[in-house]
Amino acid sequence: MARKCAVNGKSSKMAGGYSNRTRATQFNPVGVKRRKANLKNKRVFVPEINKTVNVILSTKAIKTIQKHGAYAVLKKAGVI
Q1: 3-state SS record for 4-71
Q2: In contact, 74 and 80? CB cutoff 8 Å
C-alpha cells in the first residue's frame, strides 16, 4: 500500500517543470519531480475507546486532531 494520510488522503504527487515562456525560448526537457507529503507514523491514544491506534498522518492532520480531538477526527475518517 502506498504511503497515504489516513485522515485527509494526502500522498505524493508529480510537480515541477517549466513555465510556458521558458518552453518557448530555451526548452531543455528535464522532466518533473515527485513531491512527497510530510507524513509521520503516529501512535494516537483515543480515550473514548481506551486504545492506542497506529496511523500514518500528515502534519496537517496531526494539527486537526489536536484541535478537534482524536475520536471525532478518526471516526469521521473511518479509521476507528
Answers
A1: CCCCCCCCCEEECCCCHHHHHHHCCCCCCEEECCCEEEEEEEECCCCEEEEEEEEHHHHHHHHHHCHH
A2: yes
Tell me the per-residue pLDDT of 8-58, one tens digit each, with 9 for 90 and over: 999 999 887 777 777 777 766 667 889 999 999 999 999 999 999 999 999
From residue 51, give the alpha-carbon distance in Å to each of 12, 26, 43, 44.
30, 58, 10, 8
pTM of the predicted model, to two decimals? 0.80
CB 11 within 8 A of CB 37: yes
The neighbouring-strand residues paired with 46 are 51
Domains of the chain in sequence order: 13-77 (2.30.170.40)
Give dist(CA 68, CA 8) in Å, integer.
Answer: 14
